[in-house]
Amino acid sequence: MTVLLLRHGRSTSNTAGTLAGRSEGVDLDDKGREQAAGLIDRIGDLPIRAVVSSPLLRCRRTVEPLAQALCIEAVIEDQLAEVDYGEWTGRKLSELVNEPLWRVVQAHPSAAVFPGGEGLAQVQARAVAVVREHDRRLSEQYGGDVLWVACTHGDVIKSLIADAYGMHLDSFQRVNADPASVSVIRYTPLRPFVLHVNHTGSRLSAGLRAAPAPETKEQPSGDAVVGGSTD
Fold first, then answer.
1. Per its UniProt record, what SUPFAM superfamilies does this chain match (predicted)?
2. pLDDT at residue number 52
């Protein structure tokens, strides 16, 4: 099973420099809407069987054009929601950098629990569990190597990539997931393979139409693009 981890397009909260979290009504800005429409050319020619989205508006808006082009009804998955940042929700990032917890989030995220919210270790656990559950369901439904899209949020994607790499969660800040980026993980019975990270180019196709590589061979090749900043 192969999942395309899609971060939502640029939002009004991204441009305002606030931590949106689970705030209601945070929509895409003009750039974000362009990015959402551009997904049709970037990944719309891939054999995508399912589109699953976080319930938050900015994710639902991001997948709408793609789902319509593919004639697929997007499935809403609560466990792909943004981190519950609790009392940090809606605050300016320029203020949060002065909080003692900020340094913990950057250097020791596995120990970070947001006041009135959830911990990043909890986020990783729920994200990995729900992606693997959708993998299982889609495998039973379609059989073979199924390609599907999961539209979610930056920290959720970073935690999934860290798990797939076998990295400790404390290293997940080394991973970038920019707005409208696509990261690709292929799950096999023995281990996951990370094929792409933070892909923001015009078209994503390398290695995604071929059959999965047997476990007896070397890791499948893929262009990993790691860079840029997360806002």
1. Phosphoglycerate mutase-like (SSF53254)
2. 98
Those residues with Cβ within 8 angstroms of residue 150's Cβ, 6 or more apart along the chain or in another chain: 3, 4, 5, 6, 52, 53, 77, 80, 131, 134
| Distance separating alpha carbons of residues 134 and 142, to the nearest angstrom | 12
Query: What CA–CA distance (Å, rounded) separates 31 from 22?
Result: 21
Give me 178's structure tokens.
């920019």
Q: Is 186 helix (H, G, I), strand (E, B) or coil?
A: strand
The percent helix, strand, coil of the chain (3-state, each to 5) is 40, 15, 40
- In this structure, the dihedral spanned by the alpha carbons of residues 6, 86, 169 and 218, taken in order and rounded to 10 degrees, is -20
User: What is the chain's mean pLDDT, rounded?
Assistant: 90
pLDDT tens for residues 153-164?
999 999 999 999
Quick one: average pLDDT of 125-141? 95
Phi-psi map region of 61: left, alpha, beta (phi>0 left; psi -120 to 50 alpha): alpha
Evaluate if residue 133 carries a pLDDT over 70: yes
| Residue 4, helix vs strand vs coil | strand
Strand intervals (E) in 105-181: 147-152
Residue environment code for 72-82, b if the CB has 16+ CB neighbours within 10 A, otherwise e: bebbebebbbb
Q: Side chain identity at 96, as an amino acid letter?
A: L
User: For the chain, which domains are there?
Assistant: 2-207 (3.40.50.1240)
